[in-house]
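Appendix B. Chain record.
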Amino acid sequence: MTIGPASNPEILSHSIVLSETNPSKLPENVIPFEQAKPNSRFPGSPMKSDLLDKASEIVPDPLVLVNLVSQRVKQLNSGRSPLIATRPSMGVADIALQEIIEGKIKLIHREAP
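Structure tokens predicted for this chain:
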């Protein structure tokens, strides 16, 4: 005795086809693989490597630099104004890196309590 869709036609009639092209057929607890990109006030290209190299000279620890840029990107996307003059080709990560390079954003070391 085998159990499965071939042996039980009722399973086929109740199955839901998950489709990324037609998200209305997805159950509400399933998130489609491809989601729409969030709208940004600063559309632009991906982060520029020359900015990353310059910023890494100022903040040498890559994990700290990533967290610093990440926090600033969140602030910019939530409505904070850039601290530098921007160009339309700059993305939010570029703005954050340029702010670090120009000394507009600084890392403050706190001692643990």
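Further analysis of this model is presented in Appendix C.
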